[in-house]
Each structure stands twice: as structure tokens, then as C-alpha cells.
Amino acid sequence: MTDAPTRAKGPLPQYFDDPAIDQLHSALLALAAELSVAYDRIDTLERMLERKGTLSRAEIDRFEPDEPALQERAARREALVARLLRPFRDYREHLIERAKK
Amino acid sequence: MTTARRHAMLPRPTHDERVRQAFVRSFRRHLASRVMPGNYPIYAARVEPRFRAETGRSPQAPAELRAAMERDPYYQFWSAMLRRSQELMWESVIDPAERDREALIRRARSSPKGRGKRKGSLVLDPSLPTPRYHAAADIHLQPGGYHTDFGPDDITAGAVYDSGLHLYLDGAFGVENDAMGDILLAFYRHRFPGLKPARILDMGCAIGNSTLPWGRAFPRAELHAIDVGAPVLRYGHARAEALGVPVHFSQQNAEATNFKAGSFDLIVSHIMLHETSKSALSNILRECRRLLKPGGIMLHLEIPRGTTPLEKFMYNWESYNNNETFAQFLTDADLAAIAARSGFAPDAVEMVGFAPREAGAQTLYSPKFIWTVLVGRP
How would you write A9-65 as a 3-class SS string? Predict the structure, then answer.
């Protein structure tokens, strides 16, 4: 089974005089979304820890991740970058499609 | 904040997916309530005066306003953000839909398919061509549109649509995305009190979200729903069974169905007409005329297209930026006149504005929102 595409078929409008600004603007908004996700995740964690009375904030500040945790974090960062740079990939695909026509 | 009501076919987002969706809602709510209204004073203060200085008159046609507004940085930013919010919306619901896809397909396959007394049914037609107005560009930027199967018995388009629609207007479509059905139902009861249709057809039903209120309001009626997209119909059928409303779904083009003439007491659609084409619109109305029983009623719910030149331009945003290719051609169009040219008697069709007290109104492009209903009788 193939993966569903993430880009909709159809024209790609340009909003600003320089297309680079379109890409930067799109990336900025994706970044804002991911920042919001991270804040909410931290909020969930801290509330759950507090509720269970297991941790203090000082312990969180002293935490050092082990190897599996480091790898999971690296994979998550990679996914973040892919999400962030999606507009650039879309624009590249759009240029390639246009060149084919 | 309205939360979508869980049912068996709705994908289950993880923590991060859920809060990513919550961000999209917050972002779009902010755009609609705080950023969009600024386009109106910006137009009056600098876009219109600049156009007037250059031409000696005010812009009138939406195309003139488009050229003038697209030079303005405020409009540029709002427009770019709204487009981006639409892309982020689909992104935020695609991940959970993809993960749950196999389980949802299994669930849909095991949904009852018979024509038992209290069960709905599903009839697909793989030979039905996808109309160009679906295939040329993915409507509303949903990747793959409403018609693409990404594998056998696919339901992804339906799962993505059900999840995304709830974010589109910050939950204003209701906990089951059924507000448009409720609104048209309220219009029907207000306009035709006491009527109890025995056979009802919903055209362009997608996942049947607007269909279900009709089944709940008239539980003894035989309720049919058609669409051209197979994945939304598979999903819609399983969804209707999960929510306990029997609907007979079939994959058909509303321009030419296989129902017999005079089959229905009531034919409805919910913001479908503007997603079609000039020839399709006429064909659909002609088909409605053919399918109505004597004394039957046709009701098409539509989005207003604005009264002032600026409003007309603003409502066309979806055409310029959201793959609603045909919608712009309905600006200033007289649907009643088109219906009259498509087989209805001129005095048997009219366009009516309808502002229900209940919410469900969208304020993405103008501060006030009034629905349009095309009413017809054979």
C-alpha cells in the first residue's frame, strides 16, 4: 500500500513578491505549530509528574539521556526538520512539474 | 472548545497529534476573528484609494480587486497564512489516519452491507468516471481529493476529511460535523411545516456527515446518499452504521443517476453545487427535476458569494487559493434562473437567504454570514 501524498494536486499560489519569502513564511508557521505541540507535551508531562509526586523540577534540570533516548530524540528532530522544510520540498516538486509541461 | 464526538471510524490521534490539531484550530480562529477583518479597513484606507488614483474609479469586478489586493502586504500576509493553515490542517490529520488505516479498513469491511430493514447499504461502481472538477485539482487542498484510493478498499480520504472538517471552522460544524444538515433541516421545517418525506436523496454526500440529520429527523424515510468518491462512501457507510443511522450509499454522479424518474419526495445537497462545473450544475438541476415526485421538493444549501465588490472578492479566496475552481463563477450567478433553464418552471424555483439562530456560520471572509438555499418544485 502506497503512502498518501502530502501535497494537494493543483496550482501553487505565490503570495509575496519573492517566492523565498513564501517558503520562509510557511516554514515559520510550521515551526510555530511544532513549538505549540512541544509546549503542550511539556505541560502534560509536568502536570502528570506533579500529580504522581514523583519528580521535582531540579531533577529535570539535572537529567542526562541514555543512548536509546538520544536515538529517539534524533529521530524526532529529523521528523521535525522534514515537517519544517516541507514547503521547500513542495516548491521544488512544483518547479519540476512545471518544467515537465 | 467543541470536541469531535468519538465514533468507531474516527482515527485516534496521539497526544502530540491531538495538540497539533488544537494548534491549527487556535491559529485558524485567530486568523478569522483577528486578522481577516483587517482586510476591510485596509481596502478602504489604501487599496481602493490607490486604484482610484490610478484609474479614476473604484474597482468593481472580483478580478480587479484581486489584482489590487494582491499588491497589498496586509492581504498578502493574511492570504498566505490562511493557505498555510489549510495545509497544516490536513497534515495534522493525515498522520493518525495513515496509522489507523488498516484497522479502519477492516472495520469498514465488516460493516453490514445488506438491505435489511434497519440497516443501510453501500453500492460502489468502479467504472464510474471521476469528473474533471474532482480530478483536475484536489478540492480544498486535501491531498488526493475525495476520490483517490491509496490501496484496496481504502477509506483514508473519508477519515482525513472527517477529522479535518472539524478543525476547519474550529468545531463550528458540530460534534458530528453535521451542522449543515441541521441548518438545511431547520430551513425545511420552517418553510414546509409538517411534511414527512418518504424517500430522500442527498447529493454529493461525501462521508454523509450532513446526511445523518435527515435520517434522524425522518427515521421512517428511505434515505439515499450519492457521491463520486469511493473512499469517502466506504467510510461514510461504516460511519453511518457506527452512528446507528441507516443510509443507502451509492457511487453515482448527480448529473445522471440510475434512480427511476419520480423517485424522491425530497432532494438535498449541502454546499455541493459550487464544487462542480457550469455544465455539471445544469445537468444536476435537470436530474433533480427528473427525480422529484409530483409535489416533491429540492433544496440546495449554498455559501453566499457577497454583496459588495470587496465581499465578492473575499468569498472568491477559496477559488484563488483553495482549489474551489468553479466557485468564483457563481459570483452574481442567479441559481434560480439556471434552474429555470434546466427544466424547472421559472415560478417553481427561488433563491432564499437563511440565517439560522444557531451557530454553524462561517466568518472566514466576511463579518456576517447568511446561507443561500435554492428551492425548487417540479
Answer: CCCCCCCCCCHHHHHHHHHHHHHHHHHHHHHHHHHHHHHHHHHHCCCCHHHHHHCCC
